[in-house]
Sequence to fold (1028 residues):
Amino acid sequence: MSNIRHALNVKREDDFAKWYQEVIAAADLAEESGVRGCMVIKPWGYGIWERVQRLMDDRIKAAGVSNAYFPLFIPLANFEREAAHVEGFAKEMAVVTHHRLIADGKGGLIPDPEAKLEEPLVVRPTSETIIGDAMARWVQSWRDLPLMLNQWANVVRWEMRTRMFLRTSEFLWQEGHTAHATREEALEETHRALEMYRACVEEDLAMPVIAGEKPENERFPGADETWSIEAMMQDGKALQAGTSHYLGTNFAKAAGIQYQDSEGTQQYCHTTSWGTSTRMIGGVVMTHGDDDGLRVPPRIAPHQIVILPMLRDKPEDEAVIAYCEDLRAALADQWSMGEKLRVLFDKTPGKATAKRWDWVRKGAPVIIEVGPRDMEEGKVAMLRRDRLWNADNGKPNMHFTPRDEFVAAAAALLEEIQISLFEEARARRDANITRGLTQWSEVTDFFASNGKYPGWVEVQWAKPTGDALEKVVEQLKGEKLTIRNVPRDGEPVDGTCIFTGAPAVERILVARAY
Amino acid sequence: MSNIRHALNVKREDDFAKWYQEVIAAADLAEESGVRGCMVIKPWGYGIWERVQRLMDDRIKAAGVSNAYFPLFIPLANFEREAAHVEGFAKEMAVVTHHRLIADGKGGLIPDPEAKLEEPLVVRPTSETIIGDAMARWVQSWRDLPLMLNQWANVVRWEMRTRMFLRTSEFLWQEGHTAHATREEALEETHRALEMYRACVEEDLAMPVIAGEKPENERFPGADETWSIEAMMQDGKALQAGTSHYLGTNFAKAAGIQYQDSEGTQQYCHTTSWGTSTRMIGGVVMTHGDDDGLRVPPRIAPHQIVILPMLRDKPEDEAVIAYCEDLRAALADQWSMGEKLRVLFDKTPGKATAKRWDWVRKGAPVIIEVGPRDMEEGKVAMLRRDRLWNADNGKPNMHFTPRDEFVAAAAALLEEIQISLFEEARARRDANITRGLTQWSEVTDFFASNGKYPGWVEVQWAKPTGDALEKVVEQLKGEKLTIRNVPRDGEPVDGTCIFTGAPAVERILVARAY
Fold:
């Protein structure tokens, strides 16, 4: 396979971080904006996000959650109310202090000293406190519960070191916020959201995840429980792709979210919050990308099939264009995975071969080329992005298929690609979780000797808390490791704590992480 | 009709401004957030916005425009570059000056003096300058043109006096930004966007508008031409519901958006921008609302048909629920105006009559009630929100219809309501535009003597510029009047300028406005 000339300059195995940056650029997903820590999401990247939004939003609405919109700005006082929340979020936030600019007399602009806000406003890093205020107004009686809200919005968390999609000062997300009468109902919702995330990320993004509870030290500031879905990237690192929090009555007490129960007693609500963000797109890149660029799972591909005409500036071009247009219309009329096919007939100027490689790098699932000869023979030349190369001859694996046969099979083909991408990622993930280590030295040896991309280890522990947990966290930190989560569907314990030797109470996943 | 007891406390004719606030509250659209000038958009209001977004977005994509996302924060320097743009926007904007908070030692939080930004950032009031930067990077040659982008985003313009949906410090909108090789192509795009807005607002929001060019004094800061669509509210005031700007090469020169033409010469692009916002929802309220609340046009109604079961806490409730669920499923399987019907079976606790009035105030187009007797007779009781009252007896105009007949006719009924709301608004608008005034004194008399809701006047003028225009603007201002636009499809002139007596060159609409 050494004779394959890949479409990117950097290979995953040579420099994964550099490869990631190259995919982002080569697939035209996003770029630096020039504004510190903020990226521009370009049309292909945003198109993928729109698909993720649509599919996630359908799931959110199907669960009976209503979308709404809350202010971008949050008064400082809101952050002062919930102690743990201040501690966790008050640090790196964008603060608005003025509401007007004036000329500085030297051709520039400055904040107008006359227009200083009495109380600075924070650009939301998350909306628990401002939505909590609304919940306190909206909830009076048990009849108003559950109150289930979701918001699609931008949020800002000032970041010193940024990485596109994975860690940017501004990012896009959805945040669900719900209020319930009882702990049980709130916990049920926490788990429903977690399971919704698992299903969406696995079925739509084709990204296998492990759902589980975060250890105490990784909890959301102010939460009683934090659950996550964790995906394994191709460098073996973990990416947290979504979180769901049970907030107990902490935020309800801070904001005064109370209801009168059926016996007339005032009670505090139990609340939850759950979120996923544009970070998932970074996960898609590091899960499905290869040395030729991105491979977009069909369900989230803005265009699932791209048709490229091979034109020669000759009179017969017209017939090729008509043939392609007819093909586009026939395909666009098919249904796959519950939706009409998304088909692009790309007539932009440029050679078909150059355009083919653009779409390979962008990761369109299926690329079709049509030249005069194909047309005469009633065929199409078809390239599956997920099986790009013919290993025997080092050339692109181009299939020549009768046009009608291709149209009839297109819907099933997309479904097959969707499943195949998921299975490939799952097999890789499963092959890279190492179990059975029982001594801390085995863990350090494993990460020291297992190459650049060692994967994850699953070990057993006694679930220490407080100072004992802090000690474990420090010990892991020394090896650049973190506890990802306690898998929800894990095996029962059968050993001792790898840190203390005490009887184990649960299994944890330990990994390097984004 | 005096025996009708309306669902609101305030009538339009008594106090329009107060009525507007009551509809916003009674229809559960939005509320004050407690954060200065920012509102919370509640689920029913946001659901309407989501419908508008979906329908507008389909139109935007169909025109070949791509969605993308640009930073919330804009460096000050961007605003300093385009002189007219600074002048117009630099005044009331939210300015971020710090990126961290610290404890003040007294239990509160303050911006950390150590974390002052070197250059303050502005929360975008609009994105011409930041998108211009991206265009300058993306456009190299004529082959890259046209570049057509759109963004759905929140923007902030600090407002001293706010009014929900109409004027809030933060609002939601879409902003299209395009770059073209020539003036002609950019002007064509300016008009395409304007026409798209006209079609969407008239066909989807059922709000009749007049498309036309804004006079010089009302141009967007930095634009060569500004076009708008203007709708008439029920108090006779005008609401600008969307604008489309031809920016010439002004922003291209400020940001350096250049392309190499086919002969190898560097040229500046001609750019456009166009926007519509949540303001349109305020327009829907003031166009279709009545003394019983809102009436939502079916195309933008989150639920088009709401089914209310009449339950009595008796064993036969179960059969009623099953009958309703079956009805819901049968309706949800129908198509109307190109989409599946959106049907809600509202099983929340509460009496059917109270719930009926909630849905009347919210403006669901069709309300269905089903009680045990209706079920036995295979009927439904149907209320059309746009024809709520029986004028003869002052009671709700409830129709009893065989269930199958109703299901078969539901799609056509919704279409009829959509058209009927539009026609009603258009007839009222047309009846309230007064033409033929030729003297300024006639205009002042008209607005002085024509009651609280005088409507608009169409007059002819000589299209003065500079100081002469300024004088006219002041003259109008004295009567609280503004020039709305020069109707695109207006009649030719046949008289003299109402301000100067010189030969007229065009017709203008003059009105009080939001």
Observations:
- The radius of gyration of chain B is 26 Å.
- Chain B has a mean pLDDT of 96.
- DSSP finds 14 helices and 30 strands in chain B.
- Chain B touches chain A through 66 residues (CB under 8 Å).
